[in-house]
TrEMBL record, chains A, B:
<keyword id="KW-0808">Transferase</keyword>
<dbReference type="InterPro" id="IPR015422">
    <property type="entry name" value="PyrdxlP-dep_Trfase_small"/>
</dbReference>
<dbReference type="InterPro" id="IPR015421">
    <property type="entry name" value="PyrdxlP-dep_Trfase_major"/>
</dbReference>
<dbReference type="GO" id="GO:0008483">
    <property type="term" value="F:transaminase activity"/>
</dbReference>
<dbReference type="InterPro" id="IPR015424">
    <property type="entry name" value="PyrdxlP-dep_Trfase"/>
</dbReference>
<dbReference type="InterPro" id="IPR024551">
    <property type="entry name" value="AspAT_Ic"/>
</dbReference>
<dbReference type="Pfam" id="PF12897">
    <property type="entry name" value="Asp_aminotransf"/>
</dbReference>
<protein>
    <submittedName>
        <fullName>Aminotransferase class I/II-fold pyridoxal phosphate-dependent enzyme</fullName>
    </submittedName>
</protein>
<keyword id="KW-0032">Aminotransferase</keyword>
Amino acid sequence: MHTPVQIDSPLDAASRAELESRYADLCSQGLKINMTRGVPSPEQLALAKRFLSLPGESDFVSRDGVDWRNYGGLQGMPEVRELFSEALLGLPADYVAVGENSSLALMYEALSHAFRRGVPGSDQPWSEEAVVKFICPVPGYDRHFSICDEFRIEMLPVPMLDSGPDMDIVEALVAGDPSIKGMWCVPKYSNPCGTTYTDVTVERLAAMAAAAPDFRLFWDNAYAVHHLSDEATPNQDITGRCAAAGHPNRAFVFASTSKIVLPGAGLAFFGSSPENLAWWLERRKHRTIGPDKVNQLRHLLFFGDADGLTQHMRAHSTLLAPKFACVDRAFAQAFGDTGSARWTRPAGGYFISLDITPGCAKRTVELAKQAGIALTPAGATHPGGRDPHDANIRISPSYVDLDTLAKASHGTALCAQLAAAEIR
Amino acid sequence: MHTPVQIDSPLDAASRAELESRYADLCSQGLKINMTRGVPSPEQLALAKRFLSLPGESDFVSRDGVDWRNYGGLQGMPEVRELFSEALLGLPADYVAVGENSSLALMYEALSHAFRRGVPGSDQPWSEEAVVKFICPVPGYDRHFSICDEFRIEMLPVPMLDSGPDMDIVEALVAGDPSIKGMWCVPKYSNPCGTTYTDVTVERLAAMAAAAPDFRLFWDNAYAVHHLSDEATPNQDITGRCAAAGHPNRAFVFASTSKIVLPGAGLAFFGSSPENLAWWLERRKHRTIGPDKVNQLRHLLFFGDADGLTQHMRAHSTLLAPKFACVDRAFAQAFGDTGSARWTRPAGGYFISLDITPGCAKRTVELAKQAGIALTPAGATHPGGRDPHDANIRISPSYVDLDTLAKASHGTALCAQLAAAEIR
């Protein structure tokens, strides 16, 4: 599915002139569309309106005895962990800690602790290893790659299949190289493919032999409840699978409410095995007295219970699903069954992954930019910003309205076709 | 002032029996008082009541064009930086970045970046140095020492004088040892002495020669606006002094609103020179998309302007000042001018530093605990929890009500007198 497009466009020379003429039309429209990132739309933000006046005059008393208005509570309120831990991390509340507003920051922090002090099972801090490598499924999330750059972690790209990362390659790499300390995973509605790792993939990730005794899956469950229909894909039980396979500490699980309430004003979570959680809190206690408990209570009062969360995510889905359908329709109409492009049809998440004629992604993004359509830079879905096939483009349908999105999708398809015609 | 008490108590053997009898009375009262930490009282928390319903239905638009309800804004809203930067950090808004909810976490993060990547002026990351040392004024803040423990930083205690840290010692150390990379400073109403560094001290810190080219002052301005009267001690202009002395990048300045609005639900700030700030944001961009802007707007709407902040801190002061007076009264009554104890009379902050007969602090805290008065552990004000004179106790008057505080203060003084009598 995410292998490069093999068949070239069947367009002939005559159609290049036609494409150029249509592109000139596109440029003359004076578009100014930003589709670079996967951000919620104003209509989605409006769903959290009530959140902005909470907690108000609440007389809530947490049963852990920690005053939510004062210092303390390193692990986070039990009531809040209970509300989110199963839904977002597939874990019991005891094995989850609340963080600040960004799950990315928690992933960064976990790496930071690993480099400075090692993780359970480490022979030494990762900073003392000659080299640290991470497996990076591609196409993947550029901010994961950026963290690796900052930590000077060598990235090993592994292709995504319909089932998740190519496990034959992952298993061979991880078994053979003790400097491979970790692997980025967006296991559900992945960024950007929208792929959900199959049971077999999850099982193989949990059970595979690892040369490094302290190998970790960085399990970024960013889209846990971000379904595009009422058909909710369940969370994979990665921690349970790892424990059953004799690797209880293998997975660090992360999630946040950024794309549930408001980006930047949500809660982030870390979850794992009891031993990893104890390590997490032991490291963390030097860093902070505790995360924002007022925001925890705000979440608790806003959602009430698991059903409140489900209803809220349905409202998001109602706004998002038509946008994914709009892009799909535009691409189907533009590319048809020519084989000149392939794109994903995710059941959740925030992105569509578009593969076009190899060698054309950068040029397509450039043409789109000239026409006023800002797309995620070509290559961003690959470590170092280098897509070896120059074929993959991440489409972010969430922010713009439907009319604009239709224009942007048709425009993007036109740019891809023109780019392909140019190199023929 | 903070040198150990030299003159022993003039109490004789007869009075030991009397002290023991009074201690038995104390124990029989069944007290249960927690004075371990400097936390705001319920009355102080109530000052932030309106904060809990904000921002509400605000149509605020920040002039930086970043939607406060969506992603982005790595440095923080300009309006919020303008509101707090002068008051809390003594810096212009351009040289300040907003963080999450904990200034301690920002100090930790600055160290984390320094260890991984070095700071402007570093020859190499601090993690590659054979040893990294920090100067720690004592008595000092235990959480600073805890961060040093976590980073395996060797701590060099330097005594606090009435003017701030003993600069003769500081200058000699910093000039002579390139492995001294930093120094903790709580320059205003210091924890626990309540000392404000004098102009001369600040000038000497800014101007002194440092063997390490990347030496940094970790300037924890925790009590910037936490005056105990209407007489506001101004912020020291450490960044300006450093720049004037040819060390523009010497100071990292930190502050937060934890003890202004609600602990844990406030904003933390980092401020420094343009070069340091650029370094901070460059490092930070790998870690997070941005801090919580809804909480920034919440602050902006709550305080409105600098005058609103001043008024709010006056309300805190009205609640806190009588508590400091209460402790002072109790200690004066109990210790009189026997020379058996010395304690500070701060003009701001959250603590009183009590020095008693050397060798008696641990025993005093133990006796107090048995009587139901939980004090900060003796030694906590020193690196490694080891006070070489076993003489210093941190008193935290803020949380408990006045009646309780009077009991606790008299009780603590009694325990100190009994401990001294026991070793005579």
